[in-house]
Amino acid sequence: MTTKQTRSVGGGSLLRRYEYDDGWVVAADVGVDDETIDVDTVGDTAIVVVEGDGEPTESEFELPGEARNVSVTNGVLTIEGDR
């Protein structure tokens, strides 16, 4: 396993990208309830919308390829793809 990227994104969320021989994983600790986050992927872009007090917050970030699986569990967003 290789960690390729570690950075903070809006609101202090931590985004990490891991690469394996057969795929990759992008994980972000978004720190919100699972019901308040919506994730869509288009090609190699992830679009994350968080519903909170007032207006929703939208963020986009590039993925290493097309996503195979997207999940949010306990405030941690996980996106997986194949190499």
UniProtKB/TrEMBL annotation:
InterPro entries named among the record's database cross-references: DUF7127
Under the heading CDD domains, the entry gives: ACD_sHsps-like (cd06464)
Q: Which domain of life is it from?
A: Archaea
* Entry protein name: Hsp20/alpha crystallin family protein
Organism, as annotated: Halorubrum aquaticum
Q: Identify the taxonomic lineage of the organism of origin.
A: Archaea, Methanobacteriati, Methanobacteriota, Stenosarchaea group, Halobacteria
